[in-house]
Design a protein that fits this description.
This protein is α+β, with helices and mostly antiparallel strands. It is built from 16 helices and 23 strands. About 30% of the residues lie in helices and about 25% in strands. Bound molecules: uridine-diphosphate-N-acetylglucosamine (UD1). Uridine-diphosphate-N-acetylglucosamine binds next to helix 1, helix 5 and helix 6.
Length: about 425
């Protein structure tokens, strides 16, 4: 078991490349199942969720090779349509194999996925959508079985623009005869990236990035080479790290248009942003200003994945800020951990009320989930003195060697591997809810 030891109160500085997007690479790897030839994916980050996805692909019979940030997947040898429960439970995005296997083999057998505990995270929209498309779906709350019967409807409307349900619908319909229209589709850049990959492989998809996606069934998909888009959530995490430590940094290899939804929050907090082609420089003020209200929304709204790190940053802003989490029911667990550093944050009905304090002190704290974990690390970067951050396995799911990235920017973060130390319980001091 490992933990981070962080000596805080250092100002970040310098520049760094932003790695490929976790939320893109996982559906892209699942999407390889649809392609009979070889898929070469560049800019794949080294994440534990990527490792789990590769395990699933190999279990299904695919050949997977990895060299640096390039992953080659060949599913010509695919010989299974089932995924065991242990592999499904490792991460939420394993549910995307429902669409991928159904699309390629016309049947799938898997289980309810695991993942970050940030809310109920039902899969009713996925099940209903595939059922409307023409798949016979059996779901008893644990086992999921899917088998294509015959095309039922050409127009599938989602009650909510779920990212995962949109991805499953795309994957399960690109090889179906006839046309399919997804109405109220998710518009996230990761959806566009998945569609770009599939179109390069011969799929006929239009409208990705809009609320209506049109798909004309293709007979088969061919070999493809694709570069994963930059991780906009990593970029916003590093922007918050810059802001909380009052240190100017430059982020390279970003897609500026994907970051537009977070710019207003940083500007309201007093940060100056300088964009230059694929780079972004963030120049924070000495003391951040409060942000009146952040409300998380589906893209192009403020991302739910960026609210925890924004919360950490605003814990030291002048005045009271408000964050309203509207996507997930239980995504404020990091607040209790942030308060261990001396932050003054309370949660009421999915609103985080953040009373900015002047400084934070070192503490022992735990990562509650992936993005909440990043928020806790940010608090430790700002805190005076030493902090120990536990349960960092959550962070490894979505940030490639986070400690190295922060060290490049001048932070003092060490990964400690100490069996006994990491079992130390964090004290429930300073709890606000
Ligand atoms: C994806 C992202 C995750 C991000 C989220 C929202 C990946 C691997 N994960 O997750 O990082 O936080 O989008 O941008 O890309 N819902 C239902 N029924 C369903 C499906 C979803 O009620 O069948 C609800 C969820 O409980 C949640 C909301 O819809 O409240 C959004 O979920 P969704 O967009 O599906 O998120 P994920 O695809 O799980």
């Amino acid at each position: 078991m490992e933990y981070f030891e962080i000596m805080g109160n250092t100002r970040l500085g310098g520049e760094i490349d932003v790695h490929g997007a976790k939320n893109s690479v996982l559906p892209l790897l699942a999407g390889c199942v649809l392609v009979k030839g070889e898929c070469v994916l560049h800019n794949c980050p080294r994440l534990s969720d990527v490792d789990f996805t590769i395990k699933i692909l190999r279990h299904l019979g695919a050949e997977v090779k990895r060299e640096g940030s390039t992953i080659c997947v060949n599913t010509a040898t695919l010989n299974r349509y089932d995924i065991p429960e242990a592999l499904m439970r490792e991460m939420r995005s394993s549910i995307i194999f429902l669409g991928a296997l159904s699309g390629r083999l016309k049947k799938a057998k898997l289980f309810l996925p695991g993942g970050c505990e940030i809310g109920l995270r039902p899969i009713d929209l996925h099940i209903k959508a595939l059922g409307e498309l023409g798949y016979g779906i059996c779901f008893d709350g644990r086992d999921i079985k899917s088998e294509f019967i015959s095309k039922k409807s050409d127009n599938i409307a989602l009650a909510f623009p779920s990212v995962g349900a949109t991805e499953n619908l795309i994957l399960s319909s690109v090889l179906l005869e006839g046309n399919t229209r997804i109405i109220n589709a998710a518009r996230e850049p990761e959806i566009v990236d998945l569609c770009d990959f599939l179109v390069s492989a011969g799929a006929k998809i239009s409208g990705a990035g809009n609320t209506v996606i049109e798909i004309e069934g293709a007979r088969e998909l061919h070999s493809v080479e694709h570069t994963v888009i930059p991780d906009r959530i990593l970029a916003s995490t590093l922007m918050s790290a810059s802001a909380i430590t009052s240190g100017e940094i430059r982020l390279n290899k970003v897609r500026l248009s994907h970051l537009l939804p977070v710019f207003p929050v940083f500007e309201e907090a007093g940060c100056r942003l300088y964009a230059d082609k694929a780079s972004l420089t963030i120049k924070p003020p000495k003391r951040l200003r409060r942000v009146r209200l952040i409300e998380t929304r589906p893209y192009p709204g403020f991302p739910t994945d960026s609210q925890a790190t924004a919360c950490a940053m605003l814990s030291v802003a002048g005045g009271t800020s408000l964050i309203h989490e509207t996507i997930f029911e239980n995504r404020q667990k990091h607040v209790r951990e942030l308060n261990r550093f001396g932050a003054d944050i309370a949660v009421h009905d999915n609103y985080a009320v953040i009373n900015g304090v002047k400084s934070l002190h070192g503490a022992s704290a735990s990562c509650t989930d992936l993005r909440g974990g990043a928020a806790v690390v940010l608090a430790a970067l700002k805190a005076e003195g030493k902090s120990s951050i536990y349960s960092i396995n959550h962070i490894d799911r979505g940030y490639e060697c986070f400690e190295n990235q922060l060290s490049i920017l001048g932070a003092d973060v060490k990964r400690i591997n100490n069996e006994k130390e990491s079992e130390k319980q964090t004290k429930p001091e300073n709890q606000r809810f």
